[in-house]
UniProtKB/TrEMBL annotation:
CDD domains: TOPRIM_TopoIA_TopoIII. The keyword DNA-binding applies. Residues 157-618 form the Topo IA-type catalytic domain. SUPFAM superfamilies: Prokaryotic type I DNA topoisomerase. Residues 1-140 form the Toprim domain. It comes from the Bacteria. It comes from Bifidobacterium thermacidophilum. Belongs to the type IA topoisomerase family. Residues 450-474, 724-754 are annotated as: Disordered. This is DNA topoisomerase. Keywords: DNA-binding, Isomerase, Topoisomerase.
């Protein structure tokens, strides 16, 4: 009997349904052909913490620079501490060891991490039974059966498994050693990671560029032609601009080139997770983490496809299902009247083509995000939260837009010059240009606005770049030749603009397209290659968590929709060794990991190189700690101890005077002497509740969700009572009562006073 192990329960169900009539059993599904299908729960087995290596000097909870580097020679693994992971692992081990099972099938996701998940389970089960690999990118029944018929021995993927193993161990070594070395050198908790630190570095560099930007004036000569305008390149010298203006007055314009082109803007691709998170943040201000939570719930309700995907396309196998979704019931009620009318007109014209969304070569593991046939208007209006409805609307809008026609528009580019003397000598050919854009057919833009469909969020333009917004209506009959001016030429003044602050949408885009920060062509290609890993830094499943972690640790903060670095975050980037804050490190790793996968590099050699770098970290961090400028920066950076995450916004809660409050809070003094909150979410915990004074330890335990018990509380009637405390987003802290052991907790407000 064969045992199939999928990565998730939903995939196991799809495989069982494709292979035969499924019957639910104890921890697995059995088909009528006698195949057993079970499932993992993500990474069930992970690398153990240093404390598990008893006998090693660096295994102590008391850190010391003398004991670094942390360097296991015999790696230890543990079952994940996630809820339900231990029970799931034990059930899988029992099934693998079942004497009736004579062979296994690895049906985990077809990528590096999927291979790692299965191999670690097998290692934990100490099984030597033969294994075949089911490599399937679609959960369509026929696609699964086709993949079943062409399964290969799992040994054919040993290179992929070796790369996954090397990546996990290298990340562990760097994270453990870098965090300890920097923490010890600077006498404050500093947490570093291969993805987390470069992400923070992007924001720090952007903030510094904004702060250090000095607006520089520039001028454009504008020549008015009657309904349209020619303009010169940027002129940075005012006197030169005035001379050109004087020289151009009344002179004829020599049009040297007129380029006309009909442009076709293809519809945007379907959403992957990162794209949806960007769109939700741009349109509604929803964080990446909240978007993922909403999408996960929609997936669990059967209303949307798998959320943690990095594909923006579907396969040919999925095409029939998408055709069924292109039905009026998935537009009416979900979209506004203008969008519905546009969809109706496109459908009547036979212009909706779901085949535009198909690209088998760009689907690895899971397809793009789509609604499912179970989505109904009643469910949409009755059973979903506001964020979930926004997610559905965004997904449905993109589905219709992606299947629509091109936006067609005619562009005109005019190149011209004025021959004019200026000053003491002649100035020949003052260069001028103009551009125009005339819509022909709006196509998909009637369904989704172009500004929200860009891969790079709106506003991410180069510093001071003149955005082409058109120069009026250029006559259709304009040809090369000489033309008079329609009025006096003028000067238009502008100033260079700083880069825009990061939003969550633009930061996600920067992580996904991190290769733009790498100059080396081969390293760029390694970072963009998404055949075995997600392109860029991080993965669609982890990017939101990385941003939230940086916020929770006080290195980033939200100000409206913008994301900024904090003084603590800037200090971390200032004192971190160079490689750890540069995306180039990930690019170099991905290049080597690809070589390991294809048998062109040795994983042990790669890990030995990482070990050597980690061994140098203590000396390098101590050298940085001896620099006067960095020590001065550290001395001026106030570090407030975090007592836990704010239940209102997730940022660290710190103590200020006699109260505990969200670290995002900032107040200003009013003219009457009172203080008013000017920034931040406003969350506060006051020092007493029901007559009892709170302590740091109690607040820390409450924010950690440990419900500390407080005795001697006094009611309004003067009676003493005991209760537990839990955080309250609205009131700071509240009382919680357990009526009986294991019973449901009921809450009540308590009197907090300053």
């Amino acid at each position: 009997m064969r045992l199939v192990i999928a990565e998730k329960h939903s995939v196991a169900v799809a495989i069982a349904q494709a292979l035969g009539t499924p019957v639910e059993r104890d921890g697995y599904i059995e088909t009528d052909d006698g195949v057993m299908v079970s499932w993992a729960q993500g990474h069930l087995v992970e690398l153990a913490d240093p404390e598990a290596y008893e006998g090693e000097a660096w295994a102590s909870r008391e850190w010391s620079m003398d004991t670094l580097p942390v360097d296991p020679r015999q790696w230890r693994w543990r079952v994940s501490g996630a809820k339900g992971a231990s029970a799931r692992f034990k059930r899988l081990v029992a099934l693998i060891r079942d004497p009736g099972v004579d062979g296994l099938v690895n049906a985990c996701d077809p990528d590096r991490e999927g291979e790692a998940i299965f191999r670690r389970i097998m290692a934990g089960a100490h099984s030597g039974k033969p294994v075949l690999r089911l490599w399937v990118a679609s959960l369509d029944g026929q696609a699964i059966r086709d993949a079943w018929a062409r399964m290969r021995p799992d040994s054919a993927y040993d290179g992929l498994a070796a790369a996954a193993d090397a990546r996990a161990k290298a990340d562990w070594l760097v994270g453990m050693n870098a965090s300890r070395a920097h923490t010890l050198a600077w006498h404050r908790p500093l947490s570093l990671g291969r993805v987390r630190t470069p992400t923070l570095g992007m924001v720090v560099r952007r903030d510094e560029a904004i702060e250090h930007h000095t607006p520089t004036p520039f001028w454009h000569l504008e020549v008015h032609m009657g309904g349209w305008t020619l303009h010169s390149p940027r002129i940075t010298d005012h006197d030169a601009a005035v001379r050109l203006l004087d020289a151009a007055q009344g002179r004829t314009v020599n049009v040297t080139r007129v380029e006309r082109r009909r442009e076709h803007d293809r519809p945007p691709a379907l959403f992957d997770l990162t794209g949806l998170q960007q769109a939700m943040n741009t349109r509604y201000g929803v964080t990446a983490e909240h978007t993922l939570d909403a999408l996960q719930h929609l997936y669990e309700m059967g209303l949307a496809t798998y959320p943690r995907t990095d594909s923006r396309y579907i396969t040919h196998d999925d095409l029939p299902a998408l055709r069924l979704l292109l039905h009026p019931r998935y537009a009416l009620g979900f979209l506004d009247t203008g969008q519905v009318t546009a969809i109706h007109d496109l459908a009547q014209a036979g212009a909706l083509d779901p085949a535009r969304c198909v690209d088998d070569g760009k689907v690895a593991g899971h397809t793009a995000i789509l609604p499912t046939g179970r989505l109904t208007y009643d469910t949409f209006t009755r059973d979903l939260t506001d964020t979930e409805r926004q997610a559905v609307t965004t997904i449905v809008t993109r589905m219709w837009a992606a299947c629509s026609t091109d936006r067609v528009h005619d562009t005109t580019r005019v190149t011209a010059a004025i021959d004019a003397p200026a000053g003491e000598g002649p100035v020949h050919g003052i260069p001028l240009r103009a551009s125009g854009d005339t819509p022909v057919t709006p196509g998909w833009t009637l369904i989704e606005h172009p500004a929200t469909a860009r891969d790079t969020p709106h506003g991410e333009h180069k510093n001071g770049e003149r955005r082409d917004e058109g120069d009026g209506t250029i006559p259709a009959g304009l040809m090369e030749g000489t033309y008079p001016q329609a009025g006096p030429a003028t000067l238009a003044e502008g100033h260079t603009a700083p880069p825009r602050p990061f939003t969550e949408a633009s930061l996600l885009a920067a992580m996904e397209h991190a290769s733009r920060f790498v100059a080396d062509r081969d390293l760029k290609a390694a970072l963009d290659d998404d055949t075995s890993h997600s392109g860029g830094i991080g993965t669609p499943a982890t990017r939101a968590g990385i941003i939230e972690q940086l916020v929770r640790t006080g290195n980033l903060e939200r100000k409206g929709r913008q994301i900024h670095s904090t003084p603590a975050g800037r200090l971390l980037i200032a004192v971190a060794v160079d490689e750890l804050k540069d995306v180039k490190l990930t690019a170099q790793w991905e290049q080597t990991l690809a070589d390991i996968e294809h048998g062109d590099a040795d994983p042990q050699t790669f890990l030995d190189q990482i070990r050597a770098e980690c061994a140098r970290l203590p000396r390098r961090t101590m050298r940085l700690a001896g620099r006067d400028d960095l020590r001065a920066l550290a001395g001026t950076t106030r570090e407030k101890e975090s007592y836990g995450p704010c239940p209102r916004c997730g940022a660290p809660v710190v103590r200020t005077g006699g109260i505990w409050q969200c670290s995002t809070n900032h107040s200003r003094k009013n003219p009457d002497g009172t203080w008013q909150l000017s920034e931040g979410c406003g969350y506060r915990i006051y020092p007493t509740i029901c007559g009892r004074k709170l302590t740091d330890a109690v607040v820390r335990r409450a924010l950690a969700g440990k419900h500390p018990k407080i005795t001697g509380l006094v009611s309004k009637a003067g009676r003493k009572f005991d209760a537990r405390l839990e955080p309250d987003p609205d009131r700071g802290i509240r009382l919680a009562f357990n009526d009986r052991p294991g019973g449901r907790r009921r809450s009540a407000s308590g009197r907090q006073s300053a």
